[in-house]
Structures are given as C-alpha cells and as structure tokens.
C-alpha cells in the first residue's frame, strides 16, 4: 500500500468517539455536605437551645445555619452547568425548564400543607387552603432555577457576570427606595414584605416570624445570583485547560467576593432573612473557595476516603430533603408521654438524658440526619434517583 493510499484510508476512517465527560466526585460530595447540614439545622433536637451556629441569625448577622440554603442554590447552579452540556432545541429546553420548576414549586407547597389535616376540638379537619404558606425553600429554589435557566440559555459567561451585578444593585435600589421610610431594614417595613402582602394574604406567609416571610418573592431576585455563581464555577471547571489553574481562579474570585461583601455590609447589611447583596457575595465567595478546595483535594490529590458517605446524599438531594421535612412531621403526629409529639419525646427523654443542653440537641439532630442518610443509602443501592 502506497503512502498516499494510507493517507486516504486514514482520512476515510470514522473519527474516534468523543471522550465521556469527566465525573467530578467532589461535586456530589459538595452537594451531600450541604444536604447533611441542612437536615442538621432544620431538625435541632428539642428540650434545649441549639448551638448558636446551628440557628439562623435573628436578623442582621451570619451563622453557619445561614450558609446552608445559599449553598444549596450554588450547588444547584453548579449541577445545571453539567446537565446543560448537551444543548437541546429551544422548545424542549423551555418545556423541561418550566416542568421541573413547576414540579419543585408544587412539591414545596404540598410539603408545607402536609399532613393536610389537623385535629381540633371538633375532631379532624382539613387545613384550610388560605392558611397554607405559598413561599418557601423549594419554591424559591424552583423560581431561581427557572430564571437562571432562561438566562444561561442565551447569555455567555461575560454577560452573566454583568447580569449578576445588575440583579444585586437593582435589588439594593428597590430595598432602599420602596420600603417604609425609616424602616427599610425592618421585618414589617422592608420592600419584600410589602410586595408579599400585596400579592398574598397573611395566611399564605410564614407564621413564625411576626408575619415576615424569609423566603418571600422579592428575595428571589438576588438569590438567582447564588445559582449563577455555581453555574459559572461549573463552566470554569469544564472549560479550563488546566484544572489547577481554574481552581486558583475560582478561589481568587471567592476571596474577591468575600472582600466586596465586607466592604458593602455597612451600607447593605449581611442578612440571610433579607437575602441582601452583601449576603449573596459572602456566601457565593465562601462557596467558590470551598468548592475549589474540595475539587483540589478529591480530584487532584485523590483523597477519596469517606466520600461515599456524602455522595449518597449528593446524588439524591431532592428526595432526601423532602423525606427529612415530611418524616419529622409524621413523628410529631404521634402522641407520646404528654409531649407535643414523638420527636419531641425522643429529644427530651432520650437525648437530653444522654447529654444535656446543646450537645443533646445536636445529637438528636445528628441521629435524625443519619436516619435520612439511611434512606438515601437504600435508594442509592437500588439506583433510585428522584428528578423533578
């Protein structure tokens, strides 16, 4: 065979199949740690106050508990960057986006309505629709997913960075200009509460914070930036020529965000319940630093010991979160020893006897978190993944 015929044959040969996209275990671990902390914070054991860092700041301020939800949004945005690697035609893309957002929103609404009935002086009765909370954690997640999904379809990363700035500065302007004069940072006087009360009756809002809803609709505007930050971090990891260099850029961007947050805080205070711009920059910056560290440790250094514990949670976050919220409600429906419910009885009569105070409260929450992990483990063994 002549050299020319060899060249022709080589050119006619089919191209080798593209290499499968790299699977980052560190991203599943990152999501898993987030879910683990979310359950731990949400189910603090009764009978004693929890550790201050496992309780949300009452208003202005920042605790570990405040860090969990924005990290959940960041992780969702990061997952979006991988899920959207294969572009879909516009119509199927938008249909899938709307369907998933609507499903998550409805699941969140039903989660707050559950168990749908309550026992009163006249026996069991349906919980009225007009007393069911409409905003919530999953609802904000759904709205952020929808808005971010539309934005990333048409905007490249440079424009997305500019959009993040517009969203944060625009939210600042609305909060500063549309609240009750002299009370723009208060629960009743801020612009978000005014919008929620204009859209909904008080019965549809959070009932444990004086009528203020920490997941109100206006706060979705800056929360979208947490999702976009996770998305952009995912793009950086996928498109960077050298992973180590990309991680240095990610960590540097995180440090810059933290510095900007601290500089902005005197004018726009760090507050999770208001989801302020400084809060977004602080949490996004910390997430960028932590994710860069996790990828470096697990992917570059090869530290895999113990990662399966968290990947079990990270591969099925929606199902495990829903179970954690619903099962504790079921436990509280069971009367036990004069306590409001079985979970309270377990926390007070078991864990507070094992260790009093905040330690007992944390142990109770940890035990419950491990129950939720066991459900995730069983689902993982059977290959069951709940996708909206």
Largest beta sheet: strand ordering: 1-2
Radius of gyration from the alpha-carbon trace, in angstroms: 23 Å
By oligomeric state, this entry counts as: single chain
The helical percent reads: 55-70%
Q: Which sheet architecture does the biggest sheet show?
A: 2 strands, antiparallel
- Count of extended strands: 2
Order of helices and strands: HHHHEEHHHHHHHHHH
**Mean of all residue-level pLDDT scores:** 90
Class by SSE composition? mainly alpha
Number of domains: 1
- How much of the residues is beta strand, in percent? under 5%
The separation of the N and C termini measures 57 Å
How many distinct helices?
14
Q: What is the global morphology?
A: globular
**Low-pLDDT regions:** 6-13, 15-20
Characterize the structure shown.
By secondary structure, the protein is mainly α. The protein has one domain. Helix content is 64%, strand content 2%. It is built from 14 helices and 2 strands. A two-stranded antiparallel ribbon has the order 1-2.
Question: Keywords for this structure?
Answer:
388 residues, mainly alpha, 14 helices, 64% helix
What would a concise description of this structure say?
With 388 residues, the protein is an all-alpha fold.
């Amino acid at each position: 065979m002549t050299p020319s015929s060899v060249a022709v044959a080589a050119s006619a040969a089919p191209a080798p199949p593209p290499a499968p996209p790299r699977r980052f275990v560190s991203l599943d671990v990152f999501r898993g740690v987030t879910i683990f902390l979310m359950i731990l914070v949400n189910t603090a054991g009764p009978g004693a106050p929890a550790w201050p860092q496992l309780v949300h700041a009452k208003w202005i301020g920042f605790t570990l508990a405040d860090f969990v939800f924005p990290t959940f949004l960041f992780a969702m945005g990061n997952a979006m960057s991988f899920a959207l690697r294969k572009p879909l035609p516009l119509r199927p893309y938008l249909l899938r986006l709307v369907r998933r957002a609507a499903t998550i929103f409805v699941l969140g609404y039903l989660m707050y309505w559950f168990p749908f009935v309550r026992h009163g002086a006249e026996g069991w009765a349906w919980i009225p629709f007009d007393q069911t909370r409409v905003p919530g954690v999953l609802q904000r997640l759904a709205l952020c997913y929808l808005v971010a999904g539309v934005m990333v379809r048409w905007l490249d990363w440079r424009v997305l960075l500019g959009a993040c700035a517009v969203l944060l500065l625009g939210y600042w302007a609305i909060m500063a200009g549309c609240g009750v004069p002299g009370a723009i940072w208060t629960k009743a006087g801020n612009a978000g509460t005014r919008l929620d009360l204009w859209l909904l009756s008080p019965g549809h809002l959070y009932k444990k914070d004086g009528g203020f809803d920490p997941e109100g609709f206006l706060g979705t505007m800056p929360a979208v930036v947490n999702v976009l930050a996770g998305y952009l971090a995912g793009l950086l990891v996928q498109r960077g020529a050298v992973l180590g260099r990309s991680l240095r850029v990610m960590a540097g961007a995180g440090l810059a965000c933290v510095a900007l947050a601290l500089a902005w805080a005197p004018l726009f205070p760090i507050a999770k319940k208001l989801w302020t711009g400084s809060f977004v920059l602080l949490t996004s910056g910390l997430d960028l630093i932590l994710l860069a560290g996790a990828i470096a440790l697990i992917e570059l250094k090869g530290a895999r010991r113990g990662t399966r514990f968290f990947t079990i949670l990270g591969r099925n976050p929606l199902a495990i979160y829903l179970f954690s919220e619903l099962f504790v409600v079921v436990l509280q429906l069971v009367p036990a020893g004069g306590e409001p419910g079985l979970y309270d009885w377990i926390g007070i009569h078991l864990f507070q006897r094992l260790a009093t105070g905040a330690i007992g409260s944390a142990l109770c929450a940890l035990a419950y978190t491990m129950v939720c992990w066991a459900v995730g483990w069983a689902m993982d063994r059977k290959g069951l993944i709940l996708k909206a």
